[in-house]
Amino acid sequence: MSETVSAAEPGKAPEESEQCESYLEAGGHTLMSWLTTTDHKRIGILYAIAITFFFFIAGIAIGLVRLELMSPRGLFLSDDEYNRLFSLHGIVMVWFFLVPSIPATFGNFFLPLMIGAKDVAFPRLNLLSWYVYLLAAGFACYAIVAGGVDTGWTFYTPFSSLYSNGNVLAAAAGVFVAGFSSIATGVNFITTTHMLRAPGMTWFRLPLFVWAIYATSVVIVLATPILAMSLLLIIAERLFGLPVFNPNDGGDPILFQHLFWFYSHPAVYIMILPAMGVISEVFTCFARRHIFGYAMMIYAILGIAVIGFFVWGHHMFVSGESQFANLMFSLLSFLVAVPSAIKVFNWTATLYRGSISFEAPMVYAMGFVGLFTMGGLTGLFLASIPIDVHVTDTYFVVAHFHYIMVGGSVSAFFAALHFWWPKITGKLYSEAWARFAAVIMFLGFNSTFLPQYIMGYTGMPRRYHVYPPEFQAYHVLSSMGALVLLTAYMLPLVYLTWSLFHGKKAPANPWRATGLEWQTPSPPPEYNFEEIPRVDTLPYEYHPENQGGPFRPQGKVIGGK
Amino acid sequence: MTWGVLRHAGVWILLLLLLGATAASSSFDLGENGAVLRLGIAGLQVLLIWLLFMDLLGSSSLVRLCAISAFLWILLLFGLTFSDYFTRGWNGTSTRYPARTATW
Amino acid sequence: MSDDPSVVQFPWPTVARQREGVAFGMWTFLGSEILFFGGLLLTYAVYRTLYPQAFNSGSAATDIFYGTINTALLLTSSFIMTMALRGSESGSRGVVAACMLTTAAFGLAFLAVKGLEYAEDIDKHLVPGPHFPLHPPARLFFAFYWVATGVHAIHLLVGILVAVFLGIRVALRQMAPESTAIEAASLYWHFVDSVWIVLYALIYLPGRSGA
Fold it and tell me: Which CATH number does the domain C19-203 belong to among 2.120.10.30, 3.40.50.300, 3.40.50.1370, 1.20.120.80?
């Protein structure tokens, strides 16, 4: 990675960063210049700071939960405190970390850069979405400080609307408002992708990360409003006593589950699709290979985005949903595995005969593929009704979705962070520490969640802090793993911060990557490019035929002589 | 320009007439046809507003795609949800339709 | 009005492109809104399928007079809004400002009528509670009634604020009449209007024939 960039560049390397101010300089260093910025790159960083905060809040909550579970009788929490801690973990992780994680940070920062635009379509709306997120965060923090919520992250009625004595209103309002922030971001990204692509950047030349963010935005725009409505109905029932799901008045609590999962299943794809986009970028770059099956990858992304809407009923197999609907949702759930599998096979095929090197982003990405595959395959267990009836509400389910969301999305988040860190900050981090952290994260993750598959399958239910002693070994193993995982999450905080002050200056294109974002200085200037680039080739032209040189960038800056 | 205003005025009057028709129809007992008629008129009014006032007719296919996909997703939401409700009775006695177990 | 610097905004290359983008972005948002109300209509559809008589008796208890007046008010406001957009296309400041403010006035009239209707509903104990006069599942109907009309009223209020804000800015020459915000506001207004048309058919009309 210490190789020089310029040799491979057709045209010129955009190395003259001295003459244009970076986005970090332009506009000033004051706090106000950040809080009033409409620069998509700065907004991406604002989001990153906010979600990192919530990541650790939710992490502390689950740390306490894991500590409590060391003993089968519980250690130090009451039932009520325990319920509130895992609910806090779920609600904050899902809506205040995972949903905005990759799209709102890396999507915000890199979507315009990768399509050769100066900014997103509606820069002020973009800033507004961050403030709306903060407002939502305020509600969530109030709910936490005022004593917490005990409904679990799913807010199931009638418990949430009639019986719970937690701060359901504040939490639901927080999630409701966070939805607006998501939708604003989604609308912005969709419009940007449609309207502001650079000349020559056709749909079938878009990097897969852009496709993934685009598909995610479509899912956000179509799914989030249903969540908003279902939460609004809970608020109406709880605050105003309007019976919506109350069985005493003839209401049907299962209707809430339909509404909730119409959003929350696609929400899984909101979390995993951007991760898949990141992996495609990283794999091609560090295997020095064209992506295998570029068009199929796009169809797979779109297929996942659409079919992801057809499967929500598999969360309700034991709820009292009709047997016919169960069968139908089971079948449809198996279908969504097809495009996911296409992606995994294509990544593997991309590696085949590549000249693979194991820089930190690649190590994280490799971890993603393995963990995502395990999470995906156990998802097929859960799509099958008989097995699902057996393991519903056990740790098997918990392990399954943590493999997707933590093993998948969070690994990809760190892959993206390491891949793009030199571009975002203009600094190089310590490669050795980064690889070390990646390996520790992988090991810590597996020792946390692998035991949960086993204990779940043998009958340990989720959401209990008092359990039969036969499960203690698994719980202790899992808690130990969580400690390792915590260490692994703290490490990047340290060495990345260190690199900000002491890291070597990053060249424009440290990985010799093809994307447009690498054809502008690190860190990029305020309006991304001195001139709008012209795109004349497919993405991922590593080892292009008859071109000479190790790679061919997607475009070069027009008139940048 | 004036022609455009006249056309929109015509649409406006048509909308008001449809409103009168649907309001009047509500006092006649048309059975289930009544619901179809009322929703049909409402649909027609919405269509008029969307196509002419919001100018979907003159918009790019991209914009029309937005409106159409939103409706496809509504169909999806209704279709899959009702595939549960309409088949609850097939479950036998284990999970009844709420209506049958109610006491009133 | 081609590339008027007061109309074209960063990062759009031309006004035409921006206009296209604003319309597309707004429709994307409206797609989201359609699903938002779609979720609400789903609860109506499910419960009406389960309890058709209760829903009819609930509808019969609403006041069709207020409902019809309000529908007419909104249809008229939409017509005026189309004239605002027309004024924007021809760049006539006065037309845009006047039509925006008149549209907003009709919206306010709607809210006033709605307020009268709400007061009457509360008098008749039509809020689900201890003195609710109808058969229990009709409580579900009235839960829908309050949530749906309330959410619609909030949407309308936002529309009114936007229309007043834009109308005043255009009148004070702080904003060009050709601004793309006018079209965005008009799309939103028409959409909120069309939501009401559906709510009107679902809330006020059924169950009136006495059958």
Answer: 1.20.120.80
